[in-house]
Amino acid sequence: MKKTGSKLLIFSLILVQSLLAMAVGIAVLFDASGREIPVNVYAGGQDIGARGYEEAAEAIKADYEARFGSQHIRLKADDGKIYEIPFTSIEAFVDGKATVEPLKTLEGIGDIPRLISTHFGNHTTVLAPVINFNESKLRMKLIELSDDINKAPVDARIFYKDGLIEKIPDDPGISLNVNNAVELIRKQLSSDPFGEIDLMEGNALDIVYADVTMKDFDEIQVVLGEYSTSVKDQGLAISIGEAVKAINGIRVAPKGDAPGDSEFSFVEAILSGAPDIFFDEGLCQVASTMYAALLEAGIPVENITRLSHKLAVDYIEPGLDAVVAEDAYDLKFSNPFDNEVAIYAVKEGSVVTVAIAGNRDDRTDKSVIRTQIVQKSSPPVYYVENRDLKPGEKVVLDPGKEGVTVRVYRNDELISTDTYEAESSIVQ
Description:
25 strands, alpha+beta, 3 domains, four-stranded antiparallel beta sheet
């Protein structure tokens, strides 16, 4: 029992001695750390070792103040371009006292080895500057820079060219996230204020995805049918161009979708895309070209609503024309397929082309469209008196036009039978 008590007494004495020694050591450490900066300590590239704390703090402040006066925060965007913000514009300055404070501050037992190493070790210590700045002004500068940094996304594009469907992928944009950029800059300033800051890090640049992506065009793969006509009357070129723009790129949903989505109206498309347009024969030419393209694409005749002209036109074969008017006649069709179809229209020079595009699974056997005139009627003659002509002499002012009845076939299928009135000839 006595031996146990003796051992306990000895242990207690050793513990007390150890605590006293530790206390003395800490006191010595604090005394050493409070008098002057230890050697081999650097701040901002300058040696502040062996200086008093106030002297060192002032030297640090002055050094950074001089450098901040001529240098900038450097931000690298996703394209590698560097954008700069002057330190002076955000009222940046270094707090010298706060910068040297870690050399004499003990926040816990775990800090003791650090202080011992700094004051009695033989290695270099580099102090990170404590930088203060006007955050509101930094945010304003970042908002100004965002006009140059931000990049709008570019939608994917799809178009018809030379009988093929071509696609151009979408290109995502970027948007500067000001909140994240502020935190990224704050972090960089606390370590290396003059280093380049990559905005791609720290989520400072948000990706902005395009509204239209390549996935939106998955179902549009091939040209199902196309047709071209020539512009005979250049006076109609403007209205033809407007009509082409109005219908180009319209997509018609698959059958079975919401009512109306799988149907197309030429007149509605024109009024939506070119509301101020005057309905003239130019629009009829585009509608006629489209009707022929629908036949080439294999659209069943029962899915098409179309009316022919009273008189045959000169820009397309009889039987393939379609008359449209704002309040009376329309060209319509409904999508018979399980995939969407798209309408593409182009005008190159004096040639108008309309193409119907869709999924390759909906491509039918090649459609051969042919017309057959089954009846003709001579134009009636309208005579105009001209007393200057000699007896038996006559002048044809207008030869008129034959009337015809024509049948249209797609391969061996009879599509339509149309009759066109004869146009009177005028003779003096």
